[in-house]
Amino acid sequence: MQDGRETGGPHETRGPSAAVHDVVCLGILVADVIARPVDAFPEPGTLALVDSIALRGGGCALNTSSALAKLGLRAAALGKVGTDPFGDYVLGLLADRGVADGGIVRDGSVPTSASVALVDAAGERTFLHVKGASAVVRADELGEAPFAGRALHVAGALVLDELDGEPVAELLAEARRRGLDTSLDTVFDASGRWKRVLPALPHCDLVTPGLEEARAITGERDPARAAERLHELGASVAAVTGGADGCWLSGLGHVPGYSVDAIDGTGAGDAFAAGFLYARLAGRPPEWCARFANAAGALATTEVGAFEGVGDLASTLRLAGLV
To answer: 10 Å Cβ neighbour count for 171?
Structure first.
């Protein structure tokens, strides 16, 4: 490995950390190749120039755990990576960011999940994704690691093929039985199998889907109604994210976002989830949580990459007007 740690054989589970975490983020761990700006695809067989191409960390579990650590919580990432250079890169990033990675499985038979993110001049991004290792992580490989914190957050539902549906529902239900706070964030499901998330909702204290994901899951076009429908389907609290428009919270309605100089929207939804989790664990009321989460998501758009713009606690509180 590039970070000097031994990998063992082709399929290895790294021992769980003895530390107790605030939040365990179970989900997708991804290496992102980001090209910008890409406002249109070039004609087939031709070449187009961009300003930059960069390798960054990505995936909901990596992004959310990193943002939680920057806000000052003890965060752990949990999932599967390959024994390839992208896997080394992801583990190195987690170490650099102070995120525990002791429960992560390494599997030499599959590549690390990877994306190519095409970012336009307005900061909107489009992804090309290889599911890789994240799609084949199984509950029986994880042992007690999902329950080693105050909260379990499933980060990247709908592209966790071996976990989506009943396995994730069972993990969340067990976490609740053990007294953990439970939450789930989705990604856009290109396969259209949206109903796979439904068994998990009754076991979630919080869900944070993006607007298009919430519409697809619920069949509701109106954002506020989509949030309410997610609550009706079992989630204790549903926060539907809408980018610069802020979010829609079940039982409360629209909570406006904050104006920033947005450069890259990659990871903004994950930062939002981290902000909401931070506020929930601090015992804040729902509107406070939503405002803080909106500010966390907004700050994430101010730099290129899913983590580089994420603010610390003080800067997030200032943008949210909560100081």
So the answer is: 21
- Tens of pLDDT, residue by residue over 264-320, are 888 999 999 999 999 999 999 999 999 999 999 999 999 977 899 999 999 999 999
Under 8 Å between Cβ of 201 and 207 = yes
Please state the pTM of the whole predicted model: 0.89
Helix, coil or strand: residue 243: helix
81 to each of 105, 112, 186, 233, how far by Cα in Å? 6, 5, 19, 32
Residues of the chain with pLDDT under 50: 1-19
The residue among 180, 227, 236, 179 whose CA lies nearest residue 204 is 236
Residue 9 dihedral angles phi and psi, to the nearest 5°: -80, -170
Structure tokens at 290: 């939503």
Per-residue pLDDT at 48: 95
Residues listed for the chain: 323
Order of strands, sheet of 125-130, starting from the edge strand that comes earlier in the sequence: 52-58, 30-36, 113-119, 125-130
Coil, strand or helix at 22: strand
Mapped onto helix, strand or coil, the DSSP state of residue 127 is strand
Cα 88 to Cα 77: distance, rounded to the nearest angstrom: 14
Give exposure, 109-118, as e/b (b: 16+ Cβ within 10 Å).
Answer: ebbbbbbebb
